[in-house]
Structures are given as C-alpha cells and as structure tokens.
Amino acid sequence: MTLGAINWFNNEKGFGTIQTVCSGTVFLHINSFYRRPLGELKRKQIVAFKKKTTTDQGESRATGCKLLETSADFGFLMTLLGQKTMVDIRVAKGNKTSEPDEEHYCLLKHGTLQLFSDRPERSFIDTVIHYFDKQLEEARFIQFCTYLEEIAIPLIKTDDREMLEQTLYCHFYANLTAGILFQAWKHHAFRYIAYTEGMDYEIPEEIIIAHRDELGKAEWDRIRQYSYGPTFFSSE
Regarding the domain delimited by 1-118, which CATH topology (the fold level of the hierarchy) does it fall under? Predict the structure, then answer.
C-alpha cells in the first residue's frame, strides 16, 4: 500500500487527486474505496491505496483505497518509517487567474493527527503498545521511537507528556527482546527502554555475537572496554 494526501476532491462529482512522495499525482475516485468514508473527503486527508497505471502515458489511479480513520489503520501509517514523508499540496489563491501555491505537508505528522486528534490519550497508548507487541520489526525500533519522540508524542493531548513517554518506554523495557536491546545499545538510545540517558551499558556477550555482522569499528572499540572485552577478543 502507498500513502498520500488528498490534493483536491469534488464530493459532488466523486473524484479528485492524491499527492504522493514517490508516485506524484494519482487520480482518486470515490468508488475506489473498499468502504466509502462516512463524511465528505477533504483536502490533506491521508489515504492508503494501491496504484494502478491506466494509460500508455503512465497516468495512475488509486485502487483499494482506505481513509486512515481508526487505530487499526496505524500500521499503514508506520509503513512510512524511514521514508521521505513530505508532499506538496496545492493551495488555491483567492485570485482564480493566478497559479496555486504549494504547501509542504508531512504525511507522518498529519496522519498521526488524523488518527488521534479526537481520541483520548489512552487510545494512543494502547495503539502504540499493540503495534510494538504485534507488528514492529526489531530493526525498525529506533525509527519507531524517533517518530514517537519527535512527531507523535508532541501532538497527543496529555496532562503529562513525560509520563506518557515513560509509560511507553517502560512497556518496551518490560517486553524487551534481544534484538530490541541490541538496537538500543548500538544507537546509544537506552532512554527508549527506560534506562538512564547518557550512560553506556554492557549488553550480554551472546547478543554481541548474534549481531556481530552489524558492528563497525566504533562498536568494536566500545566492546573492548567491557568486562568481557579482553576475553572476547582473545578468543577471536
């Protein structure tokens, strides 16, 4: 599935366009939705869809469309992790004879608002925890936490943002896997598993061995300082 933002849509005629990061402008018809949205479609709404080329000139249209509406759609949004997420949305000027302006638009940011702006904090927490437990690939853990820290958590209505962060990070710690621990260690991102920031921690030697192909010189130099460092290198 590809994600994009509605560039414009005529609800009376039932068609418009979607703007995407990589595929450019894609034609959108109301009949392309698996289930029609309850309300009118609006500019900037985020849509998940499959792209279909319809002409010899390479024109594209959206099929199998899904408007991001519920917590169950959070997985669609997370496909954007690690990708470029900025698109340019046309903004019509008051003077119809002039060319429209373009507005830079972050799909991750506005997709998060679309899903959670009218929902309680607990809904966001439950959605994030469910995605972490059931869908998150260990190799994308840092990208996921960076998204939470820099985009999602600042957007969520809460009385205590720090407590919201710690609720999530403590869950990540309580459900820690060897792969997640390795990612936190490699990227010096122990705060994402509720460890004290700014400190280094030795991780079990067997985790180092399991991920040895992912280590560079900086990581090997770091390991030399650990309690098992001399033994580890003497056995190489």
Answer: OB fold (Dihydrolipoamide Acetyltransferase, E2P) (2.40.50)
